[in-house]
Amino acid sequence: MKNIAIFLNFSKEQGLKIAKEIITRLKEKKFKLYSSKDYFIDGTESFSSGNLPENIELLLVLGGDGTFLSIARDYASYQVPILGVNLGTLGFLTEVELKEVEDAIEKIDQGQYNIEKRQMVEAELVRDGKIIEKVVALNEITISKGPLARIISLNTYVDDVFLDCYPGDGVIISTPTGSTGYSLSAGGPILTPSLPVLVITPICPHTLHSRSVVVSNKSEIKVILATTNQEVVLTIDGQRGIELKGGDMIKVKGSDLFVPVVRLKGKNFFDILRLKMNYYSNRRLL
């Protein structure tokens, strides 16, 4: 991995300074560095956004999980491994902390890493019998109500078999990677990243029996919005929203696309889980 594309979240405090320090260190190791015009950093060669040069072998994301998710979706079709350096707060996907950067560079240089294939999820929005939108996500697809405190109803099917009508704030359909995100906050289970499954988690269900359901990533999940005249949104990885209408159908299943994520030697899912999930209990937020 000697050809690296770097993506920096410029809004992060000290982000550019940190990026330049990392670039200096990588150049000392004879790495060739690139950055897109949207994320251009001095000391790198530029390329057009969304048009990754063929020789790129690694996407290095400097930012938080939001930046990681955005880059993962934008460049998923290239199947280039991605590694995140955490400049944010929790940083579950951007697993390399600043104090670990030097060690991470050494491991990349020496080939001390594995590549994990992370399942993506795809969704089609069907309105009046026509597909009007197709999207993919790494973490989750969410159908949720707007700002008013009103319950919505979502008829949910798995492989054309009725599962349940979820009355509440909405439903999350998550990948194993996304199981430590919004789905976890809504009471969903934690799944190891390699599992070939999706998890359906209701959000604040107004019922005594609704719980998360784990299904095969080959299954097709259909969610039909049974509520009319109310603001409801389809959200992709918590970053892009599409307004829904009563009667809309959202078809969701595991995508053929995977995100190849770099896992450095010496790190494993459960160590990261334990470290990251204890993050907020070890500090006081203002």
Euclidean distance between termini CA atoms: 41 Å
What is the tally of helical segments? 5
Helix % is 10-25%
- Top-tier CATH class of the largest domain: Mainly Beta
Low-pLDDT runs: none
What global shape is seen? elongated
Number of domains: 2
Q: What is the second-level CATH architecture of the largest domain?
A: Sandwich
Order of SSEs, N→C? Answer: EHEEEHEHEEEEEEHEEEEEEH
Q: Give the CATH H-level superfamily of the largest domain.
A: Probable inorganic polyphosphate/atp-NAD kinase, domain 2
Cα-based radius of gyration, to the nearest Å: 20 Å
What kind of sheet is the major sheet? 6 strands, antiparallel
Mean of pLDDT: 92
- Class from helix and strand fractions: alpha+beta
Protein described:
The protein has five helices and 17 strands. The protein has 286 residues and is an alpha+beta fold. The chain has two domains: 3-112 and 265-282, Probable inorganic polyphosphate/atp-NAD kinase, domain 1 (Rossmann fold), CATH 3.40.50; 120-257, Probable inorganic polyphosphate/atp-NAD kinase, domain 2 (Tumour Suppressor Smad4), CATH 2.60.200.30. Belongs to the NAD kinase family. NAD(+) binds at residues 65-66, 139-140, 150, 169, 180-185, 239. It holds the Pfam family NAD_kinase.
Keywords:
single chain; alpha+beta; Rossmann fold; 5 helices; elongated; ATP-binding; metal ion binding; kinase; ATP binding
Give a nutshell description of this structure.
It catalyses: NAD(+) + ATP = ADP + NADP(+) + H(+). The chain has 286 residues and is of the alpha+beta class.
